[in-house]
Amino acid sequence: MEQKKEVPITALSNDCFTYPKKDNFILSLFKDDEGEIETVAGSASNELTNVQKLYELFIRNEYYSELNTFNYAEYVTGIGTGNSTAIAPADESIVVGQGLGIGKYGVTAKVTTGIQTLSQNIERVASAFVKKLEVVVDGIEKLQFDVFGFSRGAAAARHFINVVLDGENGEFAKTFTLGCQKANLPLIYDFDWDESDEMKANCEITFAGLFDTVASVVNIFSKNSPVGLDLNTHTDNGDVRLWIDPRRVRHAVHLTADPTIECRDNFSLNHLNSTDEEHFHEFVLPGAHSDIGGGYHSRLSFDNPDYLLPVLEKKLVKRVSRTFSERWDEEKTKQYVLNELEKYKVRDRLTGWKEEDYVIEPLEIRQEGKNDGGRVIGKLYIQRQVEGDLSRLYLRLMYGLAEFHGVPMSDENSEVWENKDMRHYNIEDYGSGFAKINQSVLELAKNGQYSALKQKLSTPELKRSFMALNLFHHSSGDDIGMSPLWDKKEHCYKRASYPCEQGK
């Protein structure tokens, strides 16, 4: 019997990487003759993000009599998406909401939406007391917030924290107080919005769980861009406030992507402030942006583990175009294009990507004008199978730390991670100890072992191991705002990152 031979991923035809045509299957910022261009919001495919998965583990609509506490949660959809669904784009231009981070469904607008939704739904909380719990409540004495976000959602989470802590005359206090009054569930008479002492505070942020903050709000009136849009890396985040007060936020955890893996120009990192404080922690973790916060498909999410389409990656990493004026100059131009693609590949491979995963497609020759001149176009792709399980490791990290700090979540005594009916939480071992690493990180996080976690997750050996397993996505490409940023000093592609200043 003849043994079946596996076809290398680089030998697969373009059709093998093509999804069935469907509106908004993957959202994009711009579209031209060369294909779709990725956005911050559309940087991952359509699997659940870690924020969505954490929301599902949150203990909702439960009253704890011994603590005199009621747990309630709201999930606000991503930046640039409508307010009724996590998948469909908003009914405004996708460019404005997703690509630019501004507009009706931008960062600050989403915060306002969250505030309004929470305030309107206080009636549900009041109703739960009366109908289900038979508890007499004369008012709300204390508000404690656990806030999570990923990417621009992390920027929105940080901005939301600021708005909550703006005090009695701030947007949140005014809207929420009105909602409480309408629900006949008022705040207590001497409710103090500004007290920072943990023992006395009526309003506080108990936990901020942030995945790779990318505010990336575009300057729409840039003089440096022919279309008036500044898509380059910068620190101007408009009205979005990212600095969070360490006196009012009890614990903050920020999980960030490796700057050599996530090196896109338009995905600059906004660091967490006050990381010298013992209750504010920032991790640098192996992986790209959505390897940290989730969204890339895992084969475990599907009924058939041999269904490879969602884990096949074909990324245009470099496009070179050059004109020639005479027919005799065509061969010279072809060689120039090929040389440029090879030079780019050498640079790109400094990160650790595998030589065998690169493909240079046959050159395209376009005749232009009436003479013998034309244009040579060359394209370099990275074409491979990439597993989408890495974000599930960082989900365990964030969950464990949140549980340690008292966030009302439950993994059903760790059964969630192994339960085959909870496929979005499972991981594949790959015969490499990946499952053991996941279990170890979860246990360390549940015990608040920050030093051990940072040491375990920052070793060069771990990064090389994950690279060999194809757990990292190649996020940069030859698209607007998605090209990598070259660091001349360190002679490699490296992400820009910015410290967080108070008041910004």
UniProtKB/TrEMBL annotation:
Name of a matching Pfam family: T6SS_Tle1-like_cat
Domain T6SS Phospholipase effector Tle1-like catalytic as annotated: residue spans: 196-298
InterPro entries membership: Tle1-like_cat
Name of the molecule in the record: T6SS Phospholipase effector Tle1-like catalytic domain-containing protein
Species of provenance: Vibrio mimicus VM603
